């Protein structure tokens, strides 16, 4: 995509120190409580500790990593149930970390194949598809360049028979939202760079980088009280008193008010959380005994989309034979992904296999030896895949980064200015906030 380039050295040489954190019993008094042990919570806690502050990291779930997690049991091979791409490799600190610590990292090959009906597209059809994507991208870029905080559906021209395909592969497949659900200005603000993969799984790499962290697992924050001096965080294991708190949970969780605030967050902050809404994006993973796609390891498969549901394209994109492990990620996004989620896991699997049968025949069903779906839309600790600004909501990025009374601080991918929707963006946001808190508390 022709987005604004913001390539800097920030994070390119980043390291992940192995300083162990002190153990706590889930209650007591500390300098800072960090809520959520995803990339932002881990990096914030590490940074605070290095700066001499007593930080306690609590996590509602039974593991660290949040939306970056590699499962080894389901397929008997590395399977990233969430984040898989290491985006913006030029400035992604996890790429450098992996290279320095013996992981097999490599650039995305970017090979692709495109189908029309039950056959590979002709050269002319492929050119039409590419032209439609270019026309749509150009329109969104022009709007974003001048700060138009409007939906792509307002600026993308009529692409005739390619409307649904462009919406699917630029909107739902990349943004986890359809053309009427996200802001051109926000889209344009996003960093663009080279994608990388880790053959052992992104979650495996992340866990290695965080292996010395002490985290209070199975300790959900229930209420954050901040009306007086300092803050107190009530959990299922007791109350933690602190000078400040960093909240790194997703905007989806914040929007559902699973964590109560006393007093309530200011109206402007609540509005920002609502405007930075979570998109829907789920892997429907298949283990295939035969590769039908006409493309090899880490190749992209896409096809001309002709069906819609309530205006949203009904289709998927696939990453074939990810890292050579025989697992193909068939990914659905946007409102159609939400619709499938509402129908259940079986509906997700049936849709993808049905589409593949339509294109490749009944033999593909026989070749599917195993399937798995991880539904981030319904996951109680995320309530969606990743956040982006709704049309008219570009202002919310700045608002959610603003602390409340120097006691409530927010971090996570949704708070990143240029690298939102990425693990690296979440990681850097935690460091940024921790540095500001350390300066504030020591001043």
Description:
With 443 residues, the protein is α/β, with parallel strands linked by helices. The chain is 32% helix and 21% strand. The strands form 7 sheets. The chain has a 7-stranded mixed β-sheet with strand order 8-7-17-20-21-16-22. It has a 5-stranded mixed β-sheet with strand order 1-12-11-10-14, with no helix packed on it. Strands 3-2-13-24 form a 4-stranded parallel β-sheet, with helices on one face. Strand 11 and strand 12 (238-242) form a beta hairpin. Residues 1-25 have low confidence and may be disordered.
Number of H/I helices: 13
For the sheet with most strands, the description reads: 7 strands, mixed
Oligomer: single chain
The portion of residues forming beta strands comes to 15-25%
Helix content: 25-40%
Structural class: alpha/beta
Instruction: Report the principal-axis shape.
Output: globular
Contiguous low-pLDDT stretches (5 residues minimum) are 1-25
Distance between the termini: 43 Å
How many beta strands in the DSSP annotation?
A: 24
Arithmetic mean of pLDDT: 93
Query: How large is the radius of gyration?
Result: 22 Å
- The side-by-side strand order for the widest beta sheet comes to 8-7-17-20-21-16-22
């Amino acid at each position: 995509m022709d987005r604004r380039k913001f390539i800097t050295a920030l994070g390119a040489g980043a390291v992940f120190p192995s300083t162990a954190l002190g153990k706590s019993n889930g209650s007591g008094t500390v300098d800072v409580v960090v809520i959520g042990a995803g990339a932002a919570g881990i990096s914030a806690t590490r940074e605070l500790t290095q700066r001499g502050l007593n930080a306690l990291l609590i996590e509602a779930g039974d593991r660290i990593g949040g939306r970056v997690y590699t499962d080894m049991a389901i397929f008997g091979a590395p399977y990233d149930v969430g984040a898989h791409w290491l985006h913006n490799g030029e400035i992604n600190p996890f790429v450098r970390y992996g290279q320095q610590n013996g992981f097999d990292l490599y650039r995305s090959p970017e090979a692709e194949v495109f189908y029309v009906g039950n056959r590979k597209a002709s050269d002319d059809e492929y050119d039409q598809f590419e032209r439609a994507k270019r026309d749509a991208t150009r329109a969104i870029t022009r709007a974003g360049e001048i700060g138009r905080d409007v939906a792509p559906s307002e600026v993308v021209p009529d692409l005739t028979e390619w409307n649904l395909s462009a919406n699917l592969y630029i909107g739902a497949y990349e943004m986890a939202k359809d053309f009427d659900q996200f802001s051109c200005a926000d889209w344009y603000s996003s960093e663009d760079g080279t994608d990388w993969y880790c053959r052992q799984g992104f979650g495996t790499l992340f866990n290695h980088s965080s292996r010395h962290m002490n985290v209070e697992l199975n300790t959900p924050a229930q209420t954050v009280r901040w009306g007086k001096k300092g803050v107190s965080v009530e959990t299922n294991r007791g109350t933690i008193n602190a000078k400040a708190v960093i909240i790194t949970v997703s905007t989806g969780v914040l929007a559902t008010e699973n964590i109560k605030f006393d007093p309530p967050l200011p109206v402007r902050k609540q509005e920002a959380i609502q405007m930075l809404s979570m998109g829907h994006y789920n892997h429907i993973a298949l283990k295939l005994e035969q590769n039908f796609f006409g493309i090899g390891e880490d190749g992209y498969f896409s096809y001309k989309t002709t069906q819609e549901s309530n205006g949203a394209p009904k289709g998927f994109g696939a990453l074939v034979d990810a890292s050579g492990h025989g697992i193909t990620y068939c990914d659905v996004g946007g409102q159609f992904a939400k619709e499938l989620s509402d129908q259940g896991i079986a509906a997700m699997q049936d849709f993808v296999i049905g589409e593949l049968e339509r294109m490749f025949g009944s033999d593909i069903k026989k070749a599917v030896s195993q399937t798995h779906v991880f539904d981030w839309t319904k996951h109680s600790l995320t309530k969606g895949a990743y956040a982006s600004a709704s049309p008219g909501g570009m202002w919310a990025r700045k608002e959610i980064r603003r602390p409340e009374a120097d006691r409530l601080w927010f971090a996570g991918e949704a708070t990143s200015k240029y690298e939102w929707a990425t693990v690296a963006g979440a990681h850097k946001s935690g460091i940024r906030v921790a540095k500001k808190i350390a300066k504030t508390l020591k001043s």
